[in-house]
Write a structure and sequence with these properties.
By secondary structure, the protein is α/β, with parallel strands linked by helices. It has one domain: Aldolase class I (TIM Barrel), CATH 3.20.20. It has 13 helices and 10 strands. The strands form 2 sheets. It has an 8-stranded parallel beta sheet. β7, α8 and β8 form a beta-alpha-beta unit. α8 runs parallel beside α9 and α11 packs antiparallel against α12. It is globular and about 65 Å long. The structure holds 1,3-dihydroxyacetonephosphate. The site of 1,3-dihydroxyacetonephosphate has 12 residues, from α11. GO terms for molecular function: fructose-bisphosphate aldolase activity. It catalyses: beta-D-fructose 1,6-bisphosphate = D-glyceraldehyde 3-phosphate + dihydroxyacetone phosphate. Belongs to the class I fructose-bisphosphate aldolase family. It comes from Acrobeloides nanus. Pathway: Carbohydrate degradation; glycolysis; D-glyceraldehyde 3-phosphate and glycerone phosphate from D-glucose: step 4/4.
C-alpha cells in the first residue's frame, strides 16, 4: 500500500474496492430493489400474533420461506436483508436460505445492529448498538455467503429534536459501522432514518433529513469510508404521521430529491428508501414520484422496503398452506409495482383495502 502524506492511511486495496463496487452493481439493477426481511423476532412476532399465530421459530421460518421461494421474485428483487436467525435457517429441501437466494441471483445481506438504547442527556433520543464485535460478525457473515449489511439509526422529529448530540452520535455509529463492514468485504447500507412519528410538516422533515444526511456524510468522510462501495438507506421526505396538512406525491417526491441533492455526495451510487410505515401504495407512489422529478439525480433511487412489501402478503397467508400461492402472488405484485416505480414508470394499480392501509407503528424498532 502506497504511503500518503498526512494522518490518513489507506485501508482498502484496489481489489477490495472493486469487489465492493461489484456487489453494489448486482444490487442496483434497473427495475429491481431490496426486500427488507429483517424484522426482529419481536416485531415479526407481533405481526404473527395479530394473525393468531404463535411467534415460534417454525412459523418465522415458514413465513420467510414463503417469500424466498416465490417463483421469479428475482425479477424485481435484487437483494434480501436477513436477520441472524434466518441466515442460519434452511428451506424444506435442506438448502440454506442464503444459498437458495444466491442460486436465484439474489444478493443476501444481513442486519447487524443489535437494537436502539437511550442516549442519556437527550429528550428521549437513542443510539444504535452492535459495534463491539462487529468485525468478527461481519467476517463470519461474509464467509457464510452474505455480501452486504445494514445498520439502522433512528432520529425523532420534535420541537427540540433531533439534538446535535443525537445527530452526531448516530452519524458516528454509521461511520464506524460502514468502515468495519468494508474492511470485512461487506457493502454497508448506511441507514439514517428520520422517523414519521409526530405532527411536523413536509418542510420540517426535509430540513431534518438534510441535517441527518450532512452529519452522516461528514462522519463517513471522517472514517475514510469508500463511498462508491456503500448504499444509503433513508426515509423519503414526508410529513409526520399526525400532520393535518396533506401533500401530493409530486410534492413529496420533489422534497425528497431536493433533500438528497443537498446532502448525498455524487460518489454514492444508490439510495434505497425505507417505507417507514407508509401504506404499500403510498410508498410505491412516492418512490415513483421521486424518480420522476426533473432535477439531476446522480444516484439510482430504489427501494428497500419491509412493511410496504410484506403487509398484504402476511395478511393473505394467515399461516395456512392453502393460502401460500395467493400470498406469493401478492408479493410478486408489490415487487413488480416497486420495480416499475424504481424506473419512474408506475401507473397505479387496483389496490386492495389492505394495500392502502397505513402501516405506521409508533416508535417502530425494526
Ligand atoms: P420499513 O420499510 O418497514 O420501514 O423497513 C425497512 C427497514 O429495513 C427499516 O430499517
Amino acid at each position: 500500500m502506497a504511503e500518503v502524506g498526512g494522518s490518513y492511511h489507506p485501508t482498502l486495496t484496489k481489489q477490495q474496492e472493486d469487489e465492493l463496487q461489484s456487489v453494489v452493481a448486482k444490487i442496483l439493477v434497473s427495475g429491481k430493489g431490496i426486500l427488507a426481511a429483517d424484522e426482529t423476532t419481536e416485531i415479526l412476532g407481533s405481526k404473527l400474533s395479530a394473525l393468531n399465530l404463535e411467534n415460534s421459530e417454525v412459523n418465522r421460518r415458514k413465513y420467510r420461506q414463503l417469500l424466498f421461494t416465490t417463483p421469479n421474485f428475482g425479477e424485481n428483487i435484487s437483494g434480501v436483508i436477513l436477520v441472524e436467525e434466518t441466515y442460519n435457517q434452511k428451506a424444506n429441501n435442506g438448502e440454506r436460505f442464503v444459498d437458495l437466494l444466491r442460486k436465484q441471483g439474489i444478493v443476501p445481506g444481513i442486519k447487524v445492529d443489535t437494537g436502539i438504547v437511550p442516549l442519556p442527556g437527550t429528550l428521549g433520543e437513542g443510539t444504535t448498538q452492535g459495534l463491539d464485535d462487529l468485525g468478527k460478525r461481519c467476517a463470519e457473515y461474509k464467509k457464510g455467503g452474505c455480501e452486504f449489511a445494514k445498520l439502522r439509526c433512528a432520529l425523532t422529529v420534535g420541537p427540540h429534536t433531533p439534538s446535535h448530540l443525537a445527530l452526531l452520535e448516530n452519524a458516528h455509529v454509521l461511520g464506524r459501522y460502514a468502515s468495519v463492514c468494508q474492511q470485512n468485504g461487506l457493502v454497508p447500507i448506511v441507514e439514517p432514518d428520520v422517523m414519521r412519528d409526530g405532527d411536523h410538516d413536509l418542510e420540517r422533515c426535509q430540513k431534518v433529513t438534510e441535517q441527518a444526511l450532512a452529519y452522516t456524510y461528514k462522519a463517513l468522510a471522517d472514517y475514510h469510508v469508500f463511498l462508491e462501495g456503500t448504499l444509503l438507506k433513508t426515509n423519503m421526505v414526508t410529513p409526520g404521521q399526525n400532520c393535518s396538512k396533506k401533500y401530493t406525491s409530486e410534492e413529496i417526491g420533489h422534497a425528497t430529491v431536493v433533500a438528497l441533492r443537498r446532502g448525498v455526495p455524487v460518489a454514492v451510487p444508490g439510495i434505497v428508501f425505507l417505507s417507514g410505515g407508509l401504506s404499500e401504495i403510498d410508498a410505491t407512489k412516492y418512490l415513483n414520484a421521486s424518480n420522476q422529478v426533473k432535477l439531476l439525480k446522480p444516484w439510482v433511487l430504489s427501494f428497500s422496503f419491509g412493511r410496504a412489501l410484506q403487509a398484504t402478503v402476511l395478511k393473505e397467508w394467515q399461516g395456512k398452506d392453502e393460502n401460500l400461492k395467493k400470498a406469493q402472488k401478492l408479493f410478486l405484485q408489490r415487487a413488480k409495482a416497486n420495480g416499475d416505480a424504481q424506473l419512474g414508470k408506475y401507473e397505479g394499480e387496483e389496490a386492495s383495502a389492505a394495500a392502502i392501509e397505513s402501516l405506521f407503528i409508533t416508535k417502530y424498532t425494526y
